[in-house]
Amino acid sequence: MALFRLKDLSFFAFALVICIVSEVSGGQKGVTKITDENWQQVLEGEWLVEFYAPWCPACKALGPTWDAVGDWAADLDINVAAVDVTEEAGLSGRFMITSLPSIYHVIDGEFRRYMGPRTENDIITFIEDRKFHDVETVASWRAPDSISMGIVSFIFKVSMKVRVFHNIMTEKYGFPIWVTYGFLAIFTVAFGLFLGLILVFLTDCCCPQKPPKGYERSRLPEEQQATPPTDINESEEEKEDKKADEPEQKEEVVDKAEGKEEEETTLRQRKTGGNEDGEDEGESK
Q1: pLDDT single digits (tens) 47-98
Q2: Rounded CA separation 173/180 (Å)
Q3: Which of 59, 205, 206, 207 does the annotation list as catalytic?
Q4: Alpha-carbon distance 198 to 189, whole Å?
Q5: By three-state DSSP, how is residue 72 classified?
Q6: Which of 56, 205, 206, 207 is labelled catalytic?
Q7: Which of 2, 35, 139, 250 has the lowest tally of Cβ within 10 angstroms?
Protein backbone atom coordinates (compact mmCIF):
# COMPACT_ATOMS: atom_id res chain seq x y z
CA MET A 1 0.00 0.00 0.00
CA ALA A 2 2.81 2.35 0.86
CA LEU A 3 4.63 1.40 -2.33
CA PHE A 4 1.51 2.19 -4.36
CA ARG A 5 1.22 5.61 -2.76
CA LEU A 6 4.90 6.28 -3.44
CA LYS A 7 4.39 5.48 -7.11
CA ASP A 8 1.38 7.81 -7.24
CA LEU A 9 3.38 10.63 -5.68
CA SER A 10 6.30 10.13 -8.05
CA PHE A 11 3.96 10.07 -11.05
CA PHE A 12 2.21 13.21 -9.81
CA ALA A 13 5.58 14.99 -9.33
CA PHE A 14 6.74 13.95 -12.79
CA ALA A 15 3.48 15.18 -14.35
CA LEU A 16 3.81 18.48 -12.49
CA VAL A 17 7.37 19.00 -13.79
CA ILE A 18 6.23 18.24 -17.35
CA CYS A 19 3.42 20.78 -17.06
CA ILE A 20 5.76 23.46 -15.74
CA VAL A 21 8.33 22.86 -18.47
CA SER A 22 5.68 22.87 -21.20
CA GLU A 23 4.20 26.06 -19.79
CA VAL A 24 7.58 27.80 -19.74
CA SER A 25 8.75 26.60 -23.14
CA GLY A 26 5.50 26.44 -25.06
CA GLY A 27 3.49 29.16 -23.35
CA GLN A 28 5.86 31.99 -24.29
CA LYS A 29 6.80 30.34 -27.61
CA GLY A 30 10.22 32.01 -27.64
CA VAL A 31 8.75 35.53 -27.80
CA THR A 32 9.99 38.02 -25.22
CA LYS A 33 7.72 40.79 -24.03
CA ILE A 34 9.45 44.17 -24.25
CA THR A 35 8.39 47.05 -22.02
CA ASP A 36 9.63 50.56 -21.38
CA GLU A 37 11.64 49.25 -18.42
CA ASN A 38 13.61 46.52 -20.24
CA TRP A 39 13.74 47.76 -23.85
CA GLN A 40 17.46 48.58 -23.66
CA GLN A 41 18.31 44.87 -23.72
CA VAL A 42 17.65 44.95 -27.48
CA LEU A 43 20.81 47.08 -27.85
CA GLU A 44 22.91 43.95 -27.30
CA GLY A 45 22.83 40.96 -29.61
CA GLU A 46 20.46 40.35 -32.49
CA TRP A 47 16.72 40.93 -32.18
CA LEU A 48 13.51 40.84 -34.17
CA VAL A 49 10.91 43.11 -32.55
CA GLU A 50 7.25 43.25 -33.54
CA PHE A 51 5.00 46.18 -32.62
CA TYR A 52 1.33 45.23 -32.47
CA ALA A 53 -2.02 46.14 -30.97
CA PRO A 54 -4.63 43.66 -29.77
CA TRP A 55 -7.40 45.33 -31.79
CA CYS A 56 -5.42 45.31 -35.08
CA PRO A 57 -6.67 42.64 -37.56
CA ALA A 58 -3.34 42.51 -39.41
CA CYS A 59 -1.55 41.99 -36.08
CA LYS A 60 -3.88 39.12 -35.23
CA ALA A 61 -3.14 37.52 -38.61
CA LEU A 62 0.62 37.85 -38.02
CA GLY A 63 0.40 36.38 -34.51
CA PRO A 64 0.77 32.67 -35.39
CA THR A 65 3.60 33.42 -37.82
CA TRP A 66 5.43 35.45 -35.18
CA ASP A 67 5.05 32.65 -32.65
CA ALA A 68 6.51 30.23 -35.20
CA VAL A 69 9.48 32.58 -35.77
CA GLY A 70 9.91 32.66 -31.99
CA ASP A 71 10.21 28.86 -31.99
CA TRP A 72 13.16 29.23 -34.39
CA ALA A 73 14.90 31.81 -32.20
CA ALA A 74 17.30 29.33 -30.58
CA ASP A 75 18.26 27.76 -33.93
CA LEU A 76 18.80 31.15 -35.55
CA ASP A 77 20.71 32.43 -32.50
CA ILE A 78 18.51 35.53 -32.25
CA ASN A 79 15.95 36.97 -29.86
CA VAL A 80 12.34 37.44 -30.90
CA ALA A 81 10.27 40.04 -29.03
CA ALA A 82 6.91 41.79 -29.19
CA VAL A 83 5.67 45.18 -27.96
CA ASP A 84 2.04 46.02 -27.25
CA VAL A 85 1.75 49.68 -28.26
CA THR A 86 -1.48 50.11 -26.31
CA GLU A 87 0.47 49.48 -23.09
CA GLU A 88 3.85 50.91 -24.10
CA ALA A 89 3.13 54.31 -25.61
CA GLY A 90 6.67 55.45 -24.86
CA LEU A 91 8.17 52.73 -27.05
CA SER A 92 5.68 53.54 -29.78
CA GLY A 93 7.04 57.08 -29.86
CA ARG A 94 10.67 56.03 -29.40
CA PHE A 95 10.52 53.76 -32.48
CA MET A 96 8.19 56.15 -34.39
CA ILE A 97 5.58 53.49 -35.09
CA THR A 98 3.19 54.83 -37.74
CA SER A 99 1.66 51.56 -38.97
CA LEU A 100 0.76 48.20 -37.44
CA PRO A 101 2.18 45.66 -37.34
CA SER A 102 5.76 46.96 -37.63
CA ILE A 103 8.88 44.82 -37.44
CA TYR A 104 12.36 46.04 -36.54
CA HIS A 105 15.62 44.17 -36.88
CA VAL A 106 18.24 45.19 -34.31
CA ILE A 107 21.83 43.97 -34.18
CA ASP A 108 24.41 45.48 -31.81
CA GLY A 109 22.51 48.75 -31.55
CA GLU A 110 21.86 49.15 -35.30
CA PHE A 111 18.18 49.52 -36.15
CA ARG A 112 16.60 48.50 -39.47
CA ARG A 113 12.97 48.45 -40.52
CA TYR A 114 11.89 45.10 -41.97
CA MET A 115 9.71 45.76 -45.01
CA GLY A 116 9.75 42.29 -46.61
CA PRO A 117 7.02 39.65 -46.83
CA ARG A 118 5.59 38.61 -43.47
CA THR A 119 5.71 34.87 -43.87
CA GLU A 120 7.64 32.47 -41.67
CA ASN A 121 10.01 31.35 -44.43
CA ASP A 122 10.74 34.90 -45.64
CA ILE A 123 11.52 36.16 -42.15
CA ILE A 124 13.76 33.17 -41.38
CA THR A 125 15.55 33.58 -44.74
CA PHE A 126 16.05 37.28 -43.96
CA ILE A 127 18.05 36.23 -40.88
CA GLU A 128 19.83 33.15 -42.26
CA ASP A 129 21.05 34.79 -45.48
CA ARG A 130 21.96 38.03 -43.62
CA LYS A 131 19.83 40.04 -45.99
CA PHE A 132 19.54 42.81 -43.44
CA HIS A 133 22.92 44.11 -44.65
CA ASP A 134 21.12 45.30 -47.79
CA VAL A 135 18.69 47.38 -45.73
CA GLU A 136 19.66 50.92 -44.77
CA THR A 137 20.00 51.58 -41.06
CA VAL A 138 17.84 54.13 -39.29
CA ALA A 139 19.40 57.61 -39.16
CA SER A 140 21.29 58.42 -35.98
CA TRP A 141 18.90 61.19 -34.96
CA ARG A 142 15.95 58.82 -35.40
CA ALA A 143 17.55 55.91 -33.59
CA PRO A 144 15.50 54.81 -30.56
CA ASP A 145 18.49 55.28 -28.26
CA SER A 146 19.09 58.91 -29.36
CA ILE A 147 18.27 61.98 -27.27
CA SER A 148 15.73 63.28 -29.79
CA MET A 149 13.71 60.06 -29.74
CA GLY A 150 13.95 60.00 -25.95
CA ILE A 151 12.17 63.38 -25.95
CA VAL A 152 9.53 62.01 -28.34
CA SER A 153 9.06 59.02 -26.03
CA PHE A 154 8.52 61.36 -23.08
CA ILE A 155 5.89 63.32 -25.04
CA PHE A 156 4.06 60.09 -25.90
CA LYS A 157 4.09 59.07 -22.25
CA VAL A 158 2.66 62.42 -21.19
CA SER A 159 -0.05 62.17 -23.84
CA MET A 160 -0.99 58.74 -22.53
CA LYS A 161 -1.17 60.10 -18.96
CA VAL A 162 -3.42 62.91 -20.19
CA ARG A 163 -5.67 60.38 -21.89
CA VAL A 164 -5.91 58.31 -18.72
CA PHE A 165 -6.68 61.45 -16.70
CA HIS A 166 -9.42 62.41 -19.17
CA ASN A 167 -11.00 58.97 -18.98
CA ILE A 168 -10.95 58.95 -15.17
CA MET A 169 -12.51 62.42 -14.91
CA THR A 170 -15.28 61.68 -17.42
CA GLU A 171 -16.04 58.01 -16.71
CA LYS A 172 -15.30 57.61 -13.01
CA TYR A 173 -16.26 61.02 -11.63
CA GLY A 174 -18.78 62.01 -14.30
CA PHE A 175 -17.35 65.42 -15.23
CA PRO A 176 -18.41 66.89 -18.59
CA ILE A 177 -15.92 66.62 -21.40
CA TRP A 178 -15.55 70.40 -21.72
CA VAL A 179 -14.44 70.61 -18.08
CA THR A 180 -11.46 68.32 -18.61
CA TYR A 181 -10.59 70.01 -21.91
CA GLY A 182 -10.73 73.43 -20.25
CA PHE A 183 -8.58 72.29 -17.36
CA LEU A 184 -6.01 70.78 -19.72
CA ALA A 185 -5.98 73.95 -21.84
CA ILE A 186 -5.36 76.17 -18.80
CA PHE A 187 -2.65 73.83 -17.55
CA THR A 188 -0.96 73.78 -20.97
CA VAL A 189 -0.91 77.59 -21.22
CA ALA A 190 0.37 77.99 -17.65
CA PHE A 191 3.06 75.38 -18.15
CA GLY A 192 4.13 77.02 -21.42
CA LEU A 193 4.44 80.42 -19.73
CA PHE A 194 6.47 78.87 -16.93
CA LEU A 195 8.87 77.26 -19.41
CA GLY A 196 9.12 80.56 -21.29
CA LEU A 197 10.13 82.42 -18.12
CA ILE A 198 12.77 79.81 -17.37
CA LEU A 199 14.21 80.09 -20.89
CA VAL A 200 14.32 83.90 -20.71
CA PHE A 201 16.06 83.75 -17.33
CA LEU A 202 18.65 81.25 -18.58
CA THR A 203 19.23 83.33 -21.71
CA ASP A 204 19.83 86.50 -19.69
CA CYS A 205 22.23 84.66 -17.39
CA CYS A 206 24.21 82.93 -20.13
CA CYS A 207 24.10 85.65 -22.82
CA PRO A 208 23.55 89.07 -21.18
CA GLN A 209 22.56 91.86 -23.54
CA LYS A 210 25.19 94.53 -24.22
CA PRO A 211 24.21 98.19 -23.57
CA PRO A 212 23.70 100.38 -26.67
CA LYS A 213 26.56 102.47 -27.99
CA GLY A 214 27.06 105.74 -26.15
CA TYR A 215 24.94 104.65 -23.17
CA GLU A 216 27.84 104.35 -20.73
CA ARG A 217 29.48 107.57 -22.00
CA SER A 218 26.27 109.54 -21.59
CA ARG A 219 26.15 108.57 -17.92
CA LEU A 220 29.65 110.02 -17.23
CA PRO A 221 30.20 113.60 -15.99
CA GLU A 222 30.90 116.29 -18.60
CA GLU A 223 34.58 116.54 -17.65
CA GLN A 224 35.11 112.82 -18.24
CA GLN A 225 33.09 112.92 -21.46
CA ALA A 226 35.38 115.69 -22.81
CA THR A 227 38.48 113.56 -22.41
CA PRO A 228 38.83 111.12 -25.27
CA PRO A 229 39.12 107.48 -24.26
CA THR A 230 42.63 106.14 -24.11
CA ASP A 231 43.62 102.97 -25.80
CA ILE A 232 44.41 100.38 -23.15
CA ASN A 233 46.23 98.19 -25.60
CA GLU A 234 48.56 101.02 -26.67
CA SER A 235 52.16 99.88 -26.82
CA GLU A 236 54.97 101.45 -24.84
CA GLU A 237 56.80 102.57 -27.99
CA GLU A 238 53.75 104.53 -29.15
CA LYS A 239 53.54 106.17 -25.73
CA GLU A 240 57.23 107.19 -25.89
CA ASP A 241 56.77 108.57 -29.42
CA LYS A 242 53.83 110.64 -28.22
CA LYS A 243 55.84 111.97 -25.29
CA ALA A 244 58.69 112.94 -27.66
CA ASP A 245 56.27 114.71 -29.99
CA GLU A 246 54.61 116.72 -27.22
CA PRO A 247 57.39 119.43 -26.96
CA GLU A 248 57.38 119.92 -30.72
CA GLN A 249 53.61 120.28 -30.73
CA LYS A 250 53.85 122.81 -27.89
CA GLU A 251 56.51 124.83 -29.80
CA GLU A 252 54.31 124.88 -32.90
CA VAL A 253 51.42 126.14 -30.83
CA VAL A 254 53.63 128.87 -29.29
CA ASP A 255 54.95 129.91 -32.71
CA LYS A 256 51.43 130.16 -34.09
CA ALA A 257 50.36 132.25 -31.11
CA GLU A 258 53.35 134.60 -31.54
CA GLY A 259 52.68 134.92 -35.25
CA LYS A 260 49.09 135.90 -34.58
CA GLU A 261 50.23 138.52 -32.06
CA GLU A 262 52.68 140.03 -34.56
CA GLU A 263 49.99 140.22 -37.22
CA GLU A 264 47.64 141.93 -34.80
CA THR A 265 50.31 144.48 -33.79
CA THR A 266 51.15 145.32 -37.41
CA LEU A 267 47.49 145.80 -38.19
CA ARG A 268 47.14 148.11 -35.23
CA GLN A 269 50.23 150.11 -36.27
CA ARG A 270 48.88 150.52 -39.78
CA LYS A 271 45.58 151.73 -38.48
CA THR A 272 47.16 154.19 -36.07
CA GLY A 273 49.59 155.42 -38.75
CA GLY A 274 46.77 156.03 -41.22
CA ASN A 275 44.83 158.01 -38.68
CA GLU A 276 47.83 160.26 -37.88
CA ASP A 277 48.45 161.02 -41.58
CA GLY A 278 44.83 162.01 -42.01
CA GLU A 279 45.02 164.39 -39.08
CA ASP A 280 48.20 166.03 -40.45
CA GLU A 281 46.60 166.64 -43.83
CA GLY A 282 43.59 168.21 -42.16
CA GLU A 283 45.73 170.66 -40.21
CA SER A 284 47.74 171.73 -43.26
CA LYS A 285 44.54 172.56 -45.07
Answers
A1: 999 999 999 999 999 999 999 999 999 999 999 999 999 999 999 999 999 9
A2: 11
A3: 59
A4: 14
A5: coil
A6: 56
A7: 2
